[in-house]
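Lecture notes, unit on protein representations.

Consider one protein chain, 309 amino acids long.
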Amino acid sequence: MRDMLQETRLTVQNLIYPLFVQEGAARREAVASMPGVYRLSPDLLVEEVDAACRQGILAVLLFGVPETKDEAASSAYDDQGIVQQAVRLLKARFPELVVITDVCLCEYMSHGHCGVVRDGRIDNDATLPLLAQTALSHAKAGADIVAPSDMMDGRVRAIRDKLDFNGFSGVAILSYAAKFASAFYGPFREAAGSAPVFGDRRTYQMNPANRREALQEVLADLEEGADMVMVKPAMAYLDLVREVRDSVLCPVVAYNVSGEYSLVKAAAAQGWVDERQIVLETLTGIKRAGADLIITYHAKDVASWLNGG
């Protein structure tokens, strides 16, 4: 009777698996602060995705770790860039896989910020054409969904216009609409090599204290053409997940971010928590709050658990 009356159900189909791809071949580099997470060269990425697909995972989110960086993020929109290579490989091998690409410049900028820097400040409007060109290059490679995470104002419209003008109206936009300037991102910045070399990202990422502004950002991105919206991070922002879910009709995505993952891994390594039980409870809570889809580094393990492994 307990199972019959369960209100919220977490399924493998709810999971998006984030992965880091780096240049080269036969390269697997562990991320020290994220046990079980690796930077993978494209050939090993294919093996990892194959294992995930066999567990029933339907979608992956790709982050690029380039060899070269500059102040124009030129490798972000290079048609032979690392993400573009990875997308082509994955779509050739797994045509039914939903391939989502992170669209941001921080990993590709020598200064580590998400936008063009001029006179020590982020130039929002100068950044928009670079983001749009990056999204277009991902679409040309075969991406099904592009996910701008930079938090520049107006970037969804710039990307939508660029995609539509070039014949990619079928490529969806998953906007990091409510992305907060959070302390939970630390391990990711090691994984992606994207820590800013000066200052921080509080001038463009949101104040964690602002609830109404988050909803305003979500509604603005939908007005500009977003197909799906994201709340990031998830665990400390479940009130926002619920408020967004109650306010919009489109799919809502929550990102169970690197710091949330690493905290569980560290506690589990000490024997302080049951990793399987706490991860399943956490993700069920995110789903219960209103998320349709959850991006999580636990995805492959969770898929195995849900499949009876």
